[in-house]
């Protein structure tokens, strides 16, 4: 049995037949798995292009800079370039391939352009990476497979994805204790928001202004529904519609990735992502503020929010709707049916934990920390069982827990001239968001260390990279 066969057999014994890339990243790679002539710049370029294309999909899907760098280096080493320096910064990938004595290093750069989030594409690349790691694909078949994955259309139509966003808004409204009628209003409002933003996106309008439009459109219906309810002596809580809209519009932002990058040692990428999140959130808040001023001038003022904690739905309903909201987010992100099921499970667990901890009086930050850690742990473990990338399970699981309530409460207090209270609530929103992201990172780390891949010493002492 060759050295490569012995390493492969050891991997299977330790990780099982279907290990996730969360486990395989950083494992030793036989050098060279497929020898190439390092003096042949064309051959070197083919290997680096494959590795960078893989990194482009990972980075575009919200994967952290450090994990993306490891996967790029892993692919390059597998195909004969073990000595590569990889640097990922925000939306750029830099790779410098050292080719040995007497040969100058070759440097490459790739700018990652924004594309619509497609979790099925991420899952397929995850599967491709596992096939590469097991030595099942040569360089040319791997390139052909990746080209097919990148060029493929979304697994289902844009209308289905749009319905996912709308369903998520309805589920969040119910999770916040809203009535079925308010859930229907949230569904219709979100459908209109995303339909409008898709049209604006085709016209080239920057995403910041799409967030402004989304915040505006989420608020106006709530104000006039409240006015109509007052005229007919009905009791309604219109801010649930607005809060659900804020949560849905914040769901696609890369807060988890920014905090994860800061924690794991990629401060430049973390700063870029965090500023992007803050700017887009500011656009959303601005849209809500404009709508509040306009509706007030038209005689449809919204009532001030009370300072007490918003009463959530009863715990069983909260668990069900939390899972439904997470699955709907995964659907909106073009996830596969397998990922939808795991996202539902993680969302239900996260919502259940938050509801239980809030009922115990421990506050939103503690609740967010515990729930996000458990969701991150579940994401890491489910990645092994269901072979779903951990980021899909984790991000979908914490999405219903985004602090939309604190954001809206702070904004409404600004409108009422309560500056100190507004700053307190907005700071709480930032803290909850960062706590969610940090908890996910901690949970994924625990999942990796619970079953850390270790190869036998006799193999680690061999010539590996």
The ordered string of helix (H) and strand (E) elements is HHHHEEEHHHHHHHHHHHHHHH
Number of helical segments with 4 or more residues: 19
The total count of strands amounts to: 3
What level of helicity do the residues show? 55-70%
Major beta sheet, strand line-up: 1-2-3
Percentage of residues in DSSP E strands: under 5%
Main sheet specs:
3 strands, antiparallel
Separation, N- and C-terminal Cα atoms: 20 Å
Instruction: Give the C-alpha Rg.
Output: 24 Å
Class per helix and strand makeup: mainly alpha
Low-pLDDT stretches are: 10-18, 26-31, 455-465
How many domains make up the coordinates? 2
Query: So what's the overall shape?
Result: elongated
Q: Please tell me the overall pLDDT.
A: 81
In short:
The protein has 465 residues and is mostly helical. 69% of the residues lie in helices and 4% in strands. Helix 9 (207-231) runs parallel beside helix 12 and helix 12 (267-297) crosses helix 17 (404-415).
Commentary on this structure:
- By secondary structure, the chain is mostly helical.
- It folds into two domains: 31-153, no CATH class; 158-450, no CATH class.
- Helix content is 69%, strand content 4%.
- The chain is built from 19 helices and three strands.
- It has helices at 3-15, 21-24, 41-60, 65-78, 119-133, 139-151, 158-175, 180-202, 207-231, 239-251, 255-264, 267-297, 315-332, 337-359, 364-386, 390-398, 404-415, 419-450, 457-460; strands at 84-89, 92-97, 106-111.
- Strands 1-2-3 form a three-stranded antiparallel sheet.
- A hairpin with an 8-residue loop joins β2 (92-97) and β3.
- α7 runs antiparallel to α13, α8 (180-202) crosses α10 and α10 crosses α17.
- Residues 10-18, 26-31 and 455-465 have low confidence and may be disordered.
């Amino acid at each position: 049995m060759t050295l490569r066969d012995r390493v492969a057999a050891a991997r299977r014994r330790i990780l099982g037949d279907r290990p996730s890339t969360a486990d395989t990243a950083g494992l030793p790679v036989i050098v060279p798995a497929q020898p190439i002539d390092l003096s042949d710049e064309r051959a070197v370029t083919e290997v680096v292009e494959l590795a960078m294309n893989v990194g482009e999909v990972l980075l575009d899907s919200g994967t952290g800079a450090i994990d993306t760098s490891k996967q790029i280096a892993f692919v390059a080493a597998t195909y004969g370039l073990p000595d590569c320096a990889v640097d990922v910064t925000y939306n750029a990938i830099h790779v410098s391939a050292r080719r040995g004595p007497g040969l100058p290093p070759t440097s490459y750069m790739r700018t990652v352009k924004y594309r619509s989030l497609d979790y099925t594409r991420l899952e397929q690349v995850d599967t491709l990476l596992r096939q590469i790691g097991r030595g099942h694909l040569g360089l040319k078949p791997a390139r052909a497979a990746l080209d097919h994955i990148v060029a493929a259309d979304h697994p289902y139509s844009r209308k289905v994805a749009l319905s996912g966003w709308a369903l998520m808004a309805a589920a969040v409204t119910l999770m916040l204790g809203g009535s079925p009628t308010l859930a229907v209003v949230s569904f219709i409002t979100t459908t209109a928001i995303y339909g409008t933003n898709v049209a604006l996106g085709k016209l080239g309008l920057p995403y910041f202004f799409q967030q402004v439009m989304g915040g505006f459109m989420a608020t106006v219906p709530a104000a006039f529904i409240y006015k109509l309810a007052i005229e007919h002596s009905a009791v309604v809580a219109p801010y649930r519609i607005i809060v659900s809209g804020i949560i849905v519009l914040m769901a696609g932002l890369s807060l988890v990735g920014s905090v994860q990058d800061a924690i794991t040692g990629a401060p430049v990428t973390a700063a870029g992502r965090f500023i992007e999140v803050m700017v887009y959130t500011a656009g959303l808040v601005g849209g809500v503020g404009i709508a509040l001023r306009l509706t007030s001038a038209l005689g449809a003022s919204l009532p001030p929010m009370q300072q007490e904690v918003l009463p959530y739905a009863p715990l069983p309903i909260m668990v069900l709707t939390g899972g439904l909201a997470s699955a709907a987010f995964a659907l909106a992100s073009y996830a596969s049916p397998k990922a939808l099921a795991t996202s539902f499970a993680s969302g239900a667990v996260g919502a259940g934990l938050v509801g239980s901890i809030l009922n115990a009086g421990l506050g939103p930050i503690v609740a967010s920390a515990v729930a996000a850690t458990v969701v991150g742990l579940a994401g890491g473990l489910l990645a092994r069982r269901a072979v779903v990338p951990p980021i899909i399970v984790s991000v979908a699981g914490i999405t219903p827990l985004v602090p939309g309530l604190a954001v809206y409460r702070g904004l409404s207090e600004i409108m009422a001239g309560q500056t100190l209270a507004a700053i307190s609530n907005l700071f709480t929103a930032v803290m909850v968001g960062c706590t969610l992201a940090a908890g996910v990172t901690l949970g994924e780390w625990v999942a990796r260390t619970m079953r850390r891949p270790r190869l036998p010493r006799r193999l680690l002492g061999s010539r590996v990279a």
